[in-house]
Amino acid sequence: MNTILYFSPRGAVYETRAYSKADIDARAAVTGWMRDASLEVATDRAGNLVGRRAGRDTGARPIVFGSHIDSVPEGGNYDGDVGSMSAIGYAIRDDVNAVLAPLVIVFSGQLVPLNFFPQSVQPLLHLQPFAGLVDIPFRIYFANLAGSVALQSLALQAGWTLALIALGRIAMERVMRRLEMQGG
């Protein structure tokens, strides 16, 4: 988000007036970011950027995000930008999920049981976190895993759960240390 500071005439303080050269340059950059997020970009008569991506369900109501990238005097570095960049981030996140979902389906054993993969990779597949979503519960249910082996598999998944929660907290703490919110 700090990239947008480069367009400000004041450098480290974001203060870009609407329709100024700096604002026009910033709009060009944001247009590029929106296109990178697979959004169709248009500019309305007031100069507002509008990003749109058709939904999977054409009859569904749209999800709308709105904000501004120009600033007001002493409005702070993130006056309006947080909303705009969050909307673009949401569009990018949707693209990430388009890639992540098939990986989860394959590596959880939902598509093909993990025991149907080559024996050389099965031990690794059974150790990865997605195995606990489908493969391990099904193997316990169908008595392919029983007793201490079933408990070890459940303990492994509990360990993955704790590890991923810890990684998520660390990532959130890093973001929160850099987060600066200012209002106006």
Would you mind describing this structure in some detail?
This protein is mainly alpha-helical and 184 residues long. The protein folds into two domains: 2-98, no CATH class; 108-175, no CATH class. It is built from five helices and two strands. It has a two-stranded antiparallel sheet with strand order 1-2. Strand 1 and strand 2 (49-52) form a beta hairpin. The chain is elongated, with a radius of gyration of 23 Å.
Task: Tell me the major beta sheet.
Answer: 2 strands, antiparallel
pLDDT averaged over residues: 79
As residue ranges, the low-confidence spans are none
> Could you tell me the radius of gyration in angstroms?
23 Å
How many helices?
5
Distance between the termini: 19 Å
Query: What's the arrangement of strands in the largest beta sheet?
Result: 1-2
The overall number of domains is: 2
Element string (H = helix, E = strand): HEEHHHH
**Count of strand segments:** 2
Helicity range: 40-55%
Percent of residues in beta strands: under 5%
Q: Given the helix and strand composition, which structural class is it?
A: mainly alpha
Shape by Cα distribution = elongated
